[in-house]
TrEMBL record:
It is found in: Cell membrane. It is a multi-pass membrane protein. The chain crosses the membrane at residues 101-120, 132-154, 199-218, 257-279, 299-318. Belongs to the binding-protein-dependent transport system permease family. GO terms for biological process: transmembrane transport. GO terms for cellular component: plasma membrane. Pfam families: BPD_transp_1 (PF00528), BPD_transp_1_N (PF19300). It comes from the Bacteria. SUPFAM superfamilies: MetI-like. Residues 95-322 form the ABC transmembrane type-1 domain. This is Dipeptide transport system permease protein DppB. Gene3D superfamilies: MetI-like.
């Protein structure tokens, strides 16, 4: 396992270096002058040149690229031209909100996807209706899912909130910046429940499409696995269907599901940005939207790098989970 983990990390290095090179190139071709954004359009020429020299923009491009890479490895992603604070500090403030949302969405994907896959593969009562739901859920755009969720659970039923992280104005902001964790550390279970209720709708909107995809892949994988020779052998020994499903078939059927999750991660992160804007959650989506509207390319580049790193790390974890579930798989 350690050798597998080492190989995956070594394989991720070229991907991350390519990502840094792409982000650096986009910075150079973007129609935004970082010096003007920093010192202002009316700054004297000597101030402009001093800022340009300080930023290293007079160096050759290869030297600038190496410098950018070295700073990125040290966690220095530059200074936001909007907030005038380090981009890394801003990301550490906003990113936990997004990670919390994606984590809850991941739990919903696992629960809903497993239920859909097992119910349709085993022909449970109502499985025909669930198949229709799966087909419909796969075609619902995330923004439409958000609007429908708001209409049903807030406007009509009035059981779930739709904006912000919490209804409490004195919610803790540390030490982890994950409100669910911080509320428990502060000994405030009521705040924890309130924060969880604010997470349910946006997390559900992110989870719908991946959960349906997981359910469909799990159903197909289970149907193929249940026809295997070793399953027929288990039946001939008198083992019950539930025991066969849980102890023998399910573990061998989840490999394709983990492979699918690796492909779904990028979409989940992208959808989380849209969902945060719709539900007014103060996460990385709101942060990047403000940066784009203000032409803050340091922030845009920093967020892109961080999301890229998280995507690579998440795929490594998914590959390891796939290898654990099925030792025949080599990653």
């Amino acid at each position: 396992m350690l050798m597998t983990l080492g190989r995956r990390f070594l394989g991720a290095v070229p991907v991350l270096l390519a990502l840094v090179a792409v982000v650096f190139t986009l910075q150079k071709i973007a129609p935004v002058d970082p010096v003007v954004a920093l010192v202002g359009e009316k700054a004297p020429p000597e101030v402009y040149e001093a800022a340009r020299e300080k930023l290293g923009l007079n160096d050759p491009l290869p030297v600038q690229l190496l410098g950018y890479l070295g700073k990125a490895l040290q966690g220095d992603l530059g200074v936001s031209t909007v907030t005038r604070t380090p981009v890394a500090d801003n990301i550490l403030e906003f990113l936990p909100v997004t990670l919390e949302l994606v984590f809850v969405a991941g739990i919903l994907i696992a629960v809903i996807g497993s239920f859909l896959g097992l119910a349709t593969a085993q022909g449970w009562r109502g499985s025909g209706v669930l198949r229709v739901v799966m087909i419909s859920g796969a075609s619902v755009p995330v923004f439409l899912a958000c609007l429908l969720a708001m209409l049903i659970f807030y406007r009509w039923l009035d059981i779930l909130p739709v904006t912000g992280q919490t209804s409490f104005y004195d919610a803790p902001t540390g030490p982890t910046h994950f409100l669910l964790i911080d509320s428990l550390l502060a000994g405030r279970p009521v705040l924890f429940w309130d924060a969880l209720k604010h997470l349910i709708l946006p997390a559900l909107c992110i989870a719908i499409t991946p959960a349906v995809a997981v359910g469909r892949v799990l159903r197909s994988s289970l149907e193929g696995t249940m026809r295997a020779e070793y399953i027929r052998t288990a039946r001939s020994k008198g083992i019950g269907e539930k025991s066969i499903l849980i102890q023998h078939a399910l573990r061998n059927a989840v490999g394709p599901v983990f492979a699918l999750l690796g492909l779904q991660l990028a979409g989940m992160i992208g959808n989380s940005i849209v969902v945060e804007l719709i539900f007014a959650r103060p996460g990385i989506g709101l942060f990047i939207a403000q940066a784009i509207s203000k032409g803050d390319f340091n922030t845009i580049a920093g967020v892109t790098l961080v999301i890229g790193v998280l995507y690579v790390l998440a795929n490594i974890i998914v590959d390891l989970m796939q290898a654990v579930a099925d030792p025949r798989v080599t990653v």
